[in-house]
Design brief:
GABD/Sad-like, oxidoreductase, Aldehyde dehydrogenase family protein, Aldehyde_DH_dom, succinate-semialdehyde dehydrogenase (NAD+) activity, 224 residues, 8 strands, Aldehyde Dehydrogenase, Chain A, domain 2
């Protein structure tokens, strides 16, 4: 999030992007990198947004915070939180009090996650938000690209043209300007590094299952 971004909709999308499907989405907004000038206000409003979520049965239309896929998955996320704290991170539980029954994880914000913390390079498949303070744009890009993963990213800014320029420097397969990364059948989908190879959707996926053959017809009298 750049300093010129519209704060209210940015927070709305950040809360949704992190917590839809209980945070169990490959493209969910797992790390948030916020410009220093607006970091404190973002953190306050983001915490309030998470607090407004409704935990419960995912089949009910009013539920906005679902349990995880299994108790094992929930235990794994909780263990990662403990590991992050053991190595110096600050964990703040926010949001609605989740039910004691079921594979729920209390929404948690992790701050002060330094590079030597194992959590820095981890992917949390649950309602855990890692939020970083960036000194400037270069620092934000450094943090964004300093990851073993590279599926998708988002840039929130009032200047979409500048956002598109920054997107060229993102080491990810997809970049959305002013919107969380998503999956659409009419757009290419895929990442780099440990987030995979190749692309799917929009007809590209089928090409992963075929062998491409070149047939070239050349004039018999043409030079080699």
């Amino acid at each position: 999030m750049l300093a010129d971004a519209d704060l209210a909709p940015t927070v709305k999308w950040a809360v949704f992007g992190r917590h839809w499907n209980g945070g169990q989405v490959c493209v969910s907004s797992k790390r948030m990198i916020v410009a220093d000038e607006v970091y404190d206000e973002f953190l306050t409003r983001y915490s309030e947004g998470v607090a407004a979520l409704r935990a419960g049965d995912p089949l009910l239309p009013g539920t906005t915070l679902a349990p995880l896929s299994s108790q094992e998955a929930a235990d794994e996320v909780k263990q990662k939180i403990r590991l992050a704290v053991e190595h110096g991170a600050t964990a703040t539980e926010v949001g609605p009090k989740v039910p004691t029954q079921g594979a729920f994880v209390q929404p948690t914000i992790l701050t002060h996650v330094e590079k030597d913390n194992p959590a820095y390079s981890m992917e949390f498949f649950g309602p855990v938000s890692m939020i970083f303070r960036a000194k400037d744009e270069d620092d934000a890009l450094r943090i964004a690209n300093d990851s073993p993963f590279g599926l998708g990213g988002s840039i929130f800014t009032a200047d979409s043209g500048h956002g598109a320029e920054l997107a060229r420097k993102f080491s990810t397969g997809m970049v959305y300007i002013n919107h969380p990364t998503r999956v659409k059948a009419d757009l290419p989908f895929g990442g780099v590094r440990r987030s995979g190879y190749g692309r799917e959707l929009i007809g590209l996926g089928i090409k992963e299952f075929v062998n491409h053959k070149l047939v070239s017809v050349v004039d018999i009298n043409a030079e080699f």
